[in-house]
From TrEMBL:
<dbReference type="Pfam" id="PF01762">
    <property type="entry name" value="Galactosyl_T"/>
</dbReference>
<keyword id="KW-0812">Transmembrane</keyword>
<keyword id="KW-1133">Transmembrane helix</keyword>
<keyword id="KW-0333">Golgi apparatus</keyword>
<keyword id="KW-0808">Transferase</keyword>
<keyword id="KW-0328">Glycosyltransferase</keyword>
<comment type="pathway">
    <text>Protein modification; protein glycosylation.</text>
</comment>
<dbReference type="InterPro" id="IPR002659">
    <property type="entry name" value="Glyco_trans_31"/>
</dbReference>
<feature type="transmembrane region" description="Helical">
    <location>
        <begin position="7"/>
        <end position="28"/>
    </location>
</feature>
<protein>
    <recommendedName>
        <fullName>Hexosyltransferase</fullName>
        <ecNumber>2.4.1.-</ecNumber>
    </recommendedName>
</protein>
<keyword id="KW-0325">Glycoprotein</keyword>
<keyword id="KW-0443">Lipid metabolism</keyword>
<keyword id="KW-0735">Signal-anchor</keyword>
<comment type="similarity">
    <text>Belongs to the glycosyltransferase 31 family.</text>
</comment>
<keyword id="KW-0472">Membrane</keyword>
Length: 311
């Protein structure tokens, strides 16, 4: 009887020991063992835009994250705020950041679109919402390697309205050349631990209670030197799928402080109702459908000479 009991205790101890060994990497060091770190050597570019920044350095490069299916949004942006243009004597260029899709039809259409416009930066990773950090880092790598001559870079998205005129004016006024980073500042944000949220982040992925200061991923602007600095430090920063937080972690490590572009609010990640006078004095607004981008752009262009009451 006692012998059977002893044997059970022995078996239980062995099972417990094995379980401990198996679980210890996760419980003792969740971060090192289970999470992924951004790797700089993550593949060659599949597509590069047809531009030579050395010969023809742009003042401002707009990098627009978009998905393969968003051909219409890209077309609208090419014809509105993303048109190649000169503002106050400064050249502005827009390029789209893309991953790849398993959908053969979409893939074929994207290939034709790229052939026609040559304004896409693409690498071989699955184009999915939670690969946005990879997509952003691809954009920064492109600036670092192929377009460090640009003075400023904006990273933004397809559902945005960008007033490139006002942005250029403010950047010229600000007269900063290095270690400059601006946008809609988020200085006190916390990880969302509710599994039902789109922005749920597990303690495994991000064990700390607070996010570093970062700028809303809907649109942020930086001096081009920041691209290389962030890219180079990215491997030594914990990876997080929220690209704006990831860039914030890199900036914190680099001790680059976020700055306001202007004393008045110019970035609107929560949207803003359209009036020409209001939109003349904003830089970026979120939640704008392609049809509205067209409408607002036309209204803004045709009212350029109109005076607005100063608020
Ligand atoms: C991101 O891309 C990689 C490489 O294609 C892929 O293996 C991974 O599943 C993608 N991640 C998500 C969240 O889709
Ligand atoms: C911009 O700053 C530089 C020095 O950093 C200065 O020489 C130049 O005069 C400034 N330009 C304007 C327009 O303020």
């Amino acid at each position: 009887m006692a012998c059977v009991k002893m044997r059970w205790i022995y078996v239980s101890l062995v099972v417990l020991g094995v379980l401990c060994l198996y679980l210890s990497p996760y419980t003792l060091n969740p971060f090192e063992e289970d999470s992924f770190v951004f790797k700089k050597e993550s593949g060659n570019f599949l597509q590069l835009p047809d531009t030579d920044c050395r010969q023809d350095p742009p003042f401002l490069v707009l990098l627009v994250t978009s998905s393969p299916e968003q051909a219409y949004a890209r077309m609208v942006i090419r014809n509105t705020w993303g048109r190649e243009q000169t503002v106050m004597g400064k050249q502005i260029k827009t390029f789209f950041l893309l991953g790849t899709t398993p959908d053969k039809d979409v893939s074929k259409k994207v290939a034709q679109e790229i052939q026609q416009h040559r304004d896409v930066v693409q690498k071989d990773f699955l184009d999915a919402y939670f690969n946005l950090t990879l997509k952003t880092m691809m954009g920064l790598e492109w600036v670092h390697r192929l377009c460090p001559q640009a003075a400023f870079v904006m990273k933004t998205d397809t559902d945005m309205f960008i007033n490139v005129f006002y942005l250029t004016e403010l950047l010229l006024k600000r007269n900063r050349t290095s270690r400059f980073f601006t946008g809609y500042l988020k200085l006190n944000e916390y990880p969302i631990r509710s599994r039902y949220s789109k922005w749920f982040v597990s303690k495994q992925e991000y064990p700390w209670d607070k996010y570093p200061p970062f700028c809303s991923g809907t649109g942020y602007v930086f001096s081009s030197d920041v691209a290389g600095q962030v890219y180079n430090v990215a491997e030594s920063v914990p990876f997080i799928k929220l690209e704006d937080v990831f860039v914030g972690l890199c900036l914190e490590k680099l001790k680059i402080k976020l700055e306001e572009l202007h004393s008045e609010q110019t970035f609107f990640p929560g949207g803003l109702p359209f009036t020409t006078c209001r939109y003349k004095r904003i830089v970026a607004c979120h939640h704008i459908k392609p049809q509205d981008i067209l409408k607002y752009w036309q209204a803004l262009e045709s009212s350029w000479e109109e005076e607005c009451p100063h608020s």
